[in-house]
Amino acid sequence: MLSPEGDGTPLVAAPGVTAHARRLTLSALESWGLGGHGEVAEQLVAELVANAVRHTGGRTFVLRLLRGSGRIRVELRDPSRALPCLIKGDPEDEAGRGLCLVDELADRWGVDVLSRGKSVWFELKVRIAA
């Protein structure tokens, strides 16, 4: 069972939104005693936010963090119902690797279609300190 960190945090597509989402993610992980997982979680949330800003046309998003037995889940909700595509790009490409990175580093990831938009999410296995 996953426990949410509230209903989520609204984000506005503006300069600095990716850094803000990273800080929110790290802060939540540290408050849960899971700061050691922050680097990967920060990188992946940055990819989700960058994709949402670039591809959805939305101006607002909601970042939601959840924790459960041995895992965390990070969700980014956006107003678009268009599904993201996992595209294996050329190694020379300067962009387009966001979901490939999520696919490689997350233990699980996916997309849930909502009544208004979608939620792109990833999960990481975590070790709870004894």
Automatic annotation (TrEMBL):
InterPro entries: Anti-sigma-factor_SerPK, HATPase_C_sf, HATPase_dom. Gene3D superfamilies: Histidine kinase-like ATPase, C-terminal domain (3.30.565.10). It comes from the Bacteria. Keywords: ATP-binding, Kinase, Nucleotide-binding, Serine/threonine-protein kinase, Transferase. It holds the Pfam family HATPase_c_2. Residues 19-121 form the Histidine kinase/HSP90-like ATPase domain. SUPFAM superfamilies: ATPase domain of HSP90 chaperone/DNA topoisomerase II/histidine kinase. The keyword Kinase applies. One of its GO terms (molecular function) is protein serine/threonine kinase activity. Signal peptide: none annotated. This is ATP-binding protein. It comes from Streptacidiphilus pinicola.
